[in-house]
Every structure is written in structure tokens, then in C-alpha cells.
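go over both lines:
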Amino acid sequence: MAEWSGKSRGGLIGYKIFVLSIRYLHLFFAYVLLRFVAFYFLFFSKKEPIRFYFREILGYSKIRTIVSIYRNFCLLGEMLIDKIAFLTGSYNKFTFSFEGEENLHQMVAAGKGGVLIGAHMGNWEMAGQLLERVNSAMNIVMLEAEHRQIDQYLKEILVNKNIRIIAIKEDLSHLVEIGNALKRNEMVAIHGDRFLPGAGNVRVSFMGKPALLPTGPLYMASKFGVPVSYVVTVKEKTTHYHFYATPGKVYPYPSKLTTRKEEMKKMVQEYASVIEFRLKQYPLQWFNYYQFWEKS
């Protein structure tokens, strides 16, 4: 199984082009521009993981798989544009519906902070709109480990100063930052569907096939004794998003080394089952371009 380096495609110039398009032209102009970009990637990018997802996991035909990959690339582009538009202050361009909002209110009211675990599905950064409503600072752990230039550029243009970015670093200092955020009773948002080389992982059932998923997010939440909510934000219409959040749950810390692996597997399987349920509802919004499913 290939290892994921933690880096994603994209450059500073590309980000700036889309930011300028959104600010001075129109959101839909950026949408049109990305159609050509998606067409390019359809022919000139590595597509095996997403092809495997549509063809082997969902059982699509070859033609439907190709069409679905293009639609998937277009949706990914739209959501990246939406994220930039939202984070730079264009709130009025979007509408939202919230399912499970009361769960996060309860987590904040408890005064212990919490961990929101999402996936490379939908547009989870848009959850910042909800966290403003529940009056909590949000720390986004960027598993993509994007280039420092891009991180700095986004920090400079962020309008919502209640959002902090915690970048994955080789010296593991991000773990200290996450711990400090939880000690401040803040929310920490992190993906739970990719693992880095050397990190803990377990094999669980996901979409009917065995897959390796990381234990880190749930292990840290259990260690700090903070509640966990599984969150997904999907795009239902051009500028409308639907946010889902499960009730907060505090997992007991697996202190015994002899049973830790099995306890962590049960925790991660709960996460996988929640994401699987939503993925079956929105199959085109899967953006984990990484081969973690085991091939037959």
C-alpha cells in the first residue's frame, strides 16, 4: 500500500488567481474556469484511487466511472473556491442548513472543548460558519501540510480571526498545539481518514472493504477526556451546504497496552460507519485520493 506524503497539489499563484476572481469578478466565473482545470486533470493526473472507488467500491461501469471522476473533480474545485470565498469574508454568497447543531452547543456548554473529526468528503472547512454560531474558537489541523507560502497567504487574508490553522510538522510540534487548544477548551477540527507513515492505524470495514484508518485523532481525544463529534459538510446546491454533526461522545482512554489495539479499532469503526452512511448519500463528494482500501 502506497504511503501518503501529506502534501496536496496546488501553488500560491493558483490560490491568488481564484481569490482575485472571487473578489473582483464573480464566484461563478471561478466555477467556469475550474471546468477547464478539471478537464485537464481528467487526462493528466493520477486517478487510480478515485477510479478504484467508483469502479470497485461503488461498482460503476467504465463510462459512468469516467463521468463520475470528472464530476468529482469539478465538485472538488468548486469547494476549494467556496472555501476561499468563505474564509475571505464572502459569507453572503452561501446558505446553510444544520443538522446536529445542538450537539455542538452542548459540547461548548460543557466547557471542555472537543474534537470534530471529519473526512475528505464534502467541504468540512465550511463548518466554521456553524462554530461562529456556537461561540467557540476553531483550530483546523491541516493534514494536507500545504506549502508554507500558501498557509501564510491564507492566514493573511482570513477574515474570521477565531479560526486558527495548525499545520502538521515533521517535529511533531503540532501535537503540542493541539493539546494546548484542548486545554483552552477550544474545538479542534481534524480529518480522520488518512494516516502518515509511522503513525498508528487499524484495519476496519469501510464501504464493504477493509481499509487502514488512523487512530491518532480518537486516541488524543480519549487521552484528554474531551468529547468527539463526527462532522460532515456536504454541498447540496450551487451555494448551499448541509452540515451534519453527531452527538458528542467521550471515549474512555485505552490505558492497557494489551487491549489498546482492539479498543482503538472499535472507536475507529464507529467513525468509519458514520462516514460510510453519509458517503452513500453523497457518493460524488469523496475527495480522498489515496489508496487505503485493500485490493482483492
The longest strand covers residues 228-237. The chain is about 45% helix and 20% strand.
